[in-house]
Write a structure and sequence with these properties.
With 62 residues, this protein is mostly helical. It has a domain of 39 residues. 44% of the residues lie in helices and 0% in strands. The chain is elongated and about 55 Å long.
Length: 62
């Protein structure tokens, strides 16, 4: 069974510059079920303002 673009969309991956590459990679790896969901979560863009870095506290110098 092949992964389709609709599968990726249903799991929350938006169309974008990496969509076709993600689809090709998911099929190359023969992903399905939980493995496909994990793959898609790893491909999701980071929410705006969330870089994973701690923000400096105002008024404190490091």
């Amino acid at each position: 069974m092949s992964v389709t673009g609709n599968d990726l969309l249903a799991l929350g991956l938006p169309h974008g510059p990496t969509f076709a590459a993600a689809l090709a990679e998911a099929n190359r790896l023969h992903l399905s079920g939980p493995a496909l969901a994990t793959f898609v979560r790893a491909m999701l863009p980071e929410p705006a303002g969330r870089t994973g870095k701690a923000s400096p506290v105002q008024g404190q110098e490091g």
